[in-house]
């Protein structure tokens, strides 16, 4: 299988930065196209009681997501074909949806490797992506 289109998940977490660097290096070595995705979890920015304040927060989150993606895009060599996705929704679902729509040959995502209660409480976006992905998933753990 040839990996010609690599979808790389990005956010402000240092682990995500490490995973993105791995994905970018892999894309360079394979001369693959790259798409960067940042997913904004609406449950973290919206509450029905907040009203228009929530709209302001959602708009700020969208702008912040665009900034995060632009920061990672700047790390790519000039001339690299790059698509950008900033999506609002459950991160695992949005990553899988983008992989189907593009369509990606590989998804690169970071994982903290949490276990037990912290994993049950925080969930695992990487696990959800692995379970539902239409393509192989490279999970990058801490350096």
Description:
The chain is of the alpha/beta class and about 140 residues long. The protein has a single domain (about 5-140), classed as HUPs (Rossmann fold). The chain is about 45% helix and about 20% strand. It has 5 helices and 5 strands; from the N terminus they run E-H-E-H-E-H-E-H-H-E. The protein has helices spanning about 15-30, 50-75, 90-100, 115-120, 125-130; strands spanning about 5-10, 35-40, 80-90, 105-110, 135-140. The chain has a 5-stranded parallel sheet, sandwiched between helices. Helix 1 links the parallel strand 1 (about 5-10) and strand 2. Helix 3 (about 90-100) runs parallel beside helix 5. The longest helix has 22 residues, at about 50-75. It starts with a strand and ends with a strand.
Secondary structure topology:
Blueprint: E1 5-9, H1 14-30, E2 33-40, H2 52-73, E3 82-88, H3 91-101, E4 106-110, H4 116-122, H5 125-132, E5 137-140
Parallel strand pairs: 1-2, 1-4, 2-3, 4-5
């Amino acid at each position: 299988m040839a990996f010609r289109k690599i979808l790389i998940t990005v956010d402000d977490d240092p682990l995500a930065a490490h995973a993105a660097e791995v994905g970018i290096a892999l894309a360079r070595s394979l001369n693959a196209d790259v798409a960067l995705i940042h997913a904004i979890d609406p449950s973290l920015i919206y509450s029905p009681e907040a009203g228009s304040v929530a709209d302001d927060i959602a708009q700020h989150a969208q702008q912040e997501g665009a900034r995060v993606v632009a920061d990672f895009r700047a790390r790519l060599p000039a001339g690299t074909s790059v698509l950008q996705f900033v999506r609002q929704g459950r991160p695992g679902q949005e990553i899988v949806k983008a992989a189907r729509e593009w369509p990606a040959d590989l998804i690169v995502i970071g994982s903290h490797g949490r276990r037990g209660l912290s994993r049950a409480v925080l969930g695992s976006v990487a696990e959800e992506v692995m379970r539902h992905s239409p393509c192989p998933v490279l999970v990058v753990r801490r350096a």
